[in-house]
Amino acid sequence: MTPQGTPDPQAGAAVKAADRAHVFHSWSAQGLIDPLAVAGAEGSYFWDYEGNRYLDFTSGLVFTNIGYQHPKVVAAIQEQAATMTTFAPAFAVEARSEAARLIAERTPGDLDKIFFTNGGAEAVENAIRMARLHTGRHKVLSAYRSYHGGTNTAINLTGDPRRWASDSGSAGVARFWAPFLYRSPFHATTEAEECSRALKHLEDTIVFEGPGTIASIILESVPGTAGIMVPPAGYLPGVRALCDKYGIVLILDEVMAGFGRTGKWFASEHHDVVPDLLTFAKGVNSGYVPLGGVAISRAIAETFEHRPFPGGLTYSGHPLACAAAVATINVMEEEGVVEQAAHIGASVLEPGLREIAERHPSVGEVRGLGVFWALELVCSKETREPLVPYNATGADNAPMAAFGAACKKNGLWPFINMNRTHVVPACNITEGEAKEGLAVLDEALTVADQYTV
User: Fold this and answer.
1) Closest Cα to residue 425, out of 352, 322, 327, 326?
2) Mean pLDDT per 10-residue run, the chain (453 residues)?
3) Long-range CB contact pairs, 161-168, < 8 A, 24+
4) What is the spatial distance between Cα 421 and Cα 412, in angstroms, rounded to a whole number?
5) Is 231 strand, coil or helix?
């Protein structure tokens, strides 16, 4: 790692050349991308080999909830590596047991059994398998505006365009519209209307799909990549009630929203809803070593007390990953990271973003919780036409590309998806750092404003 502020262009060029020659990047046309060569990272910042430093408003891919290189977590990984680098998942290992205990203490309700995976997509895969075997049914309902992962089942559940190329059309998935008042599919004018109409639509979907065929409904507690649409009050409890009514397993995907991101350990706590299965990853150990999992209710766990669960992974509960999770959770408790995320959201990000929205004609809506926010960029606040078309690329995406370039020029690395920029810094970002990022965002939006009408 190159020390912060120490340029080494020659080393950067070598890293870049090896990347371009040998690394195959996800979700990309390989010849059309130009990855930045990163020299190092610490806290809420990272830097390149040219000496440029960036405030990371993306938290990696919304996973460095305690920032980069936290010394206590780094030390825990080093200590675990010196003691037991790895061990097969069929054994009881201290780091694995302790990680499971700490996670179970924080999950809502009776979600006390933890199945470890290597990431969020595998967590979703296994949660769906559990639900199907528990109910004896096959079909799953998922929302259009959603993302659940890139593996076979998870990508078929996903609602965004990344699904299209891999959609088998026979994965036992039916989709519905979840609430989103700003672009309401239900012609609602209030949050209450949106909630009641969305629940009616979901129940109609259940009835017409056949309740006896539906194993589970999967929802992100707060949809992440799809736009950070916080559900209206009453929606998640309403979905819970529908699942209870029809004997359907409720899976809440907390891969992105969990572990402090919304100012609670889990976003479902904002609604006092306990799912039957809860998937997690990312913030569980700030992404330092790949880890995900499924938190399992007592009823579903009992299904597999005397019946083998037909699933497993070579690296399930990897000791290095679990040691990182133990250290991360302890750091979050000791340093009040969840409380800090709630404070930064309420005191800095929400008021700051709303002030920015008032100044910029390109900002149609501000929405979010904690350190989980989105700005919906539009051509016109009156028509709400998106600043770029849905799934835009190339010239069609020029306005968002120009906005992103303006952010980076001034030292802010933005999270951009379609016509939105998401404000998703580390959960322990300081007030000063958050205000620094907002100032750059404010200036960069003047570029987006040029494309409004």
Assistant:
1) 352
2) 82 97 96 96 98 97 98 98 98 98 98 98 97 97 93 88 81 93 97 98 98 98 97 98 98 98 98 98 98 98 97 97 98 98 98 98 98 98 97 95 98 98 98 98 98 96
3) 161/390, 161/391, 162/27
4) 12
5) coil
